[in-house]
Amino acid sequence: MVNDRARSWPGEQVINAAQRGDPRAITVLLEGSHTHVRRFARTLCATPEDAEEATQEALLVLYRKIGTLRVATALASWMFQIVRHECIRRMRLALRQPIATAGAECSAEETALAHLEVKRIVDCVAALPADQRAVLVLRDIHGLSGGATAHTLGLSRAAMKSRLHRAREAVRLQMATTSDGRPEEVNT
What we know:
Number of domains: 2
Number of strands: 0
Radius of gyration: 20 Å
Low-confidence stretches: 1-6
Shape: globular
CATH architecture of the largest domain: Orthogonal Bundle
Mean pLDDT: 80
Largest sheet: none
CATH superfamily of the largest domain: RNA polymerase sigma factor, region 2, helix turn helix motif
């Protein structure tokens, strides 16, 4: 059974002492935040490896910038935003791949348009709910099999397939709209 202390974030006294530079309070703050930060990262990041790296990065930011936190009670939401930003940054890095046409040089315009399209895709994927984003990234970006994706996320195959379908459909619908929110005209 997990006690309440293990489930709660470090208290205001610990945060205030850490902000004043108390080494013991900083240690307590980092240790007390680790479980929560890791849970956020596992929910938001595409892979377990990204989640662990995002956790470490977020704790490093906490250590370096605890003095900038204005309200001690905002620690959880502040850390959530740090983890979210790190997971999105990692997903964007994973999606970056050289853009080239088969056997031909790209013009500057073609390269710019291709980069804009990649950015649109990244933004659409980033906007997905965390459960759908995780499935989509593992299957379609990292290329895991359906079984491996389901196992990694602790899902049944049916649940994984359902989430993947919803994620792909959401991205497809978002990609089919223009930047001003209107459906694109399709020339046939």
